[in-house]
Each structure stands twice: as C-alpha cells, then as structure tokens.
Design a protein that fits this description.
Blueprint (H helix, E strand, L loop, with lengths): L5 H4 L2 H18 L5 H5 L2 H14 L1 H12 L14 H4 L21 H15 L7 H6 L46 H21 L9 H6 L23 H5 L1
Helix pairs in contact: 2-7, 2-9
C-alpha cells in the first residue's frame, strides 16, 4: 500500500506546514485579535457615551463654549426648554454585563475556532498514515492466511518507508521514482503557496488574491485544479504489514 500511495505520502510535509499555519492563525482569533469581542459591546459603549453626555451636559456645554465661544441666541421662536424635556429618557439604560447572553464555551467565534483547531490537529500526518488507515480493520489485518506477495502466509519482509524515494527498495511494487505524479507535485506547490499566504496574514500583511477573470487572461499552461476535502483518521484495528509495505 505504501508503494501505491508513494506520491500521496510526499504531500505530508507541505500538508502539515499548511495545518500548522492554520493553527497559528486560529490562535490569533482566540486572543486580542478576536474581532467578535471588540464588536459585540460597541452598541453598549455608544449607549453609555450618550448617557454620560446627558448626565454631564452642563459641564460638556461649558467646555465647548470655552473652546468655541458662546453661541448667538436666535431671536425667532426661541423658547427655553429644560434638560429633562430634551433627554432621551427610557431609551438608553445602564448596561449590565449580566444582560449579555453567555455560554460556558464562550462566544460563537470561540466555539467555531476551537472546533476548527480540533479538526486541524486531527488531520495532521494524514497522508503519511494513509496506508495504515486503509489497512486497519479486521478484514485486512495480518494473519497466516494472508497473501504476502509470493505465497499464502504471514508477511515477513521489512516494511519500507513512506514516500516516492523509499520505493527504490520496494520488493513487491514496481514504482518508477524518476517519474513523480505531476498532479501531486502541483498540489504540493499550491499548499506551499497557501501556507505562505497564511504566514503573511499571521504577520499582519495584506494578502491579495487573483480573480477568475485575471487568471483566465494570464498564462493557461500547467492548468490544474485543487479541491478541499474533509479528512479524518482511521480508528482501531491493526494494519497489515504486507499491504502497507506494498
């Protein structure tokens, strides 16, 4: 199985680097850069500012008059009104932190970030462990009645390592290590580029992306697509050395 998935195993390094960059960015969202914690109380802050203005209107007016001068009184239809009559009574109330809906898990962004981090950590080393994941289970587990490549017996050969370079010593699967899968190589380059974007964003740099129209007007050689997919590791069972090694 390692021979069959040799090219895919080479994705592992860039894949893990990409996940690490995602995790570092997610850590930022849980810290002082959590925009939800900044935006949530902004309406309350505005309300408190208006209430403070109402309660200290005389002092504020005096400071304004000192800095800008006394306003000229209007002669037409001028009536004297009290502060009480012009106040927005009942609309703005003192803010109490207890009034905000809270949960044990925190805000919605906190929950989403925590869930994303768990999934990202679970996806680490996905490609290098893919042969073991495929081979795990009772139906594929090793045994004396398993085909080992030459006879019906237990696999006794040394299990080779992951990756295309290690297949030069694979006794069971003929893999040409001089001809790497170009689709996989293209995906490795995409992962590397996305990782650099994430690192730049983590450092506070603006990232610009090319639109579909801009991409179609440029070079069209080496065209390849990449699709996101959800991955999860296997559970339980013992992997067969015979199948993994092949």
């Amino acid at each position: 199985m390692r021979g069959c998935l040799a090219n895919q195993a080479d994705l592992d390094t860039e894949w893990n680097n990409f996940l690490d960059a995602m995790l570092n960015l997610a850590d930022r969202l849980e810290g002082p850069f959590n925009f939800e914690s900044v935006m949530d109380p902004i309406d309350v802050k505005i309300s408190e500012a208006i209430m403070n203005m109402q309660e200290n209107s005389m002092q504020v007016s005096q400071k304004v008059f000192q800095g800008c001068g006394q306003p000229k009184p209007s002669m037409a239809f001028r009536t004297k009104r009290s502060i009480k009559e012009t106040a927005f009574t009942g609309r703005f109330r003192p803010y109490s932190p207890d009034a905000r809906p809270t949960t044990a898990a925190g805000t919605s962004l906190d929950r989403l970030t925590g869930d994303v981090k768990k999934r990202l950590k679970h996806a680490k080393k996905f490609w290098s462990t893919l042969p073991e994941t495929v081979c795990a289970g009772e139906r594929i587990a090793p045994g004396d009645e398993c085909w080992n490549g030459t006879a019906k017996s237990r696999y006794e050969s040394v299990v080779i390592g992951n990756g295309l370079a290690n297949q030069v010593s694979n006794p069971d699967v003929d893999v040409d290590i001089t001809k790497p899968d170009m689709v996989i190589r293209s995906q490795m380059a995409v992962l590397k580029e996305m990782t650099s974007w994430l690192k730049a964003a983590h450092s506070g740099n603006d990232i610009s992306f090319e639109t579909d129209e801009e991409a179609s007007s440029g070079d069209e050689e080496g065209e390849s697509g990449s699709q996101g997919r959800a991955v999860r590791g296997g559970r339980g069972g013992r992997a067969s050395p015979a199948i993994i090694g092949n």
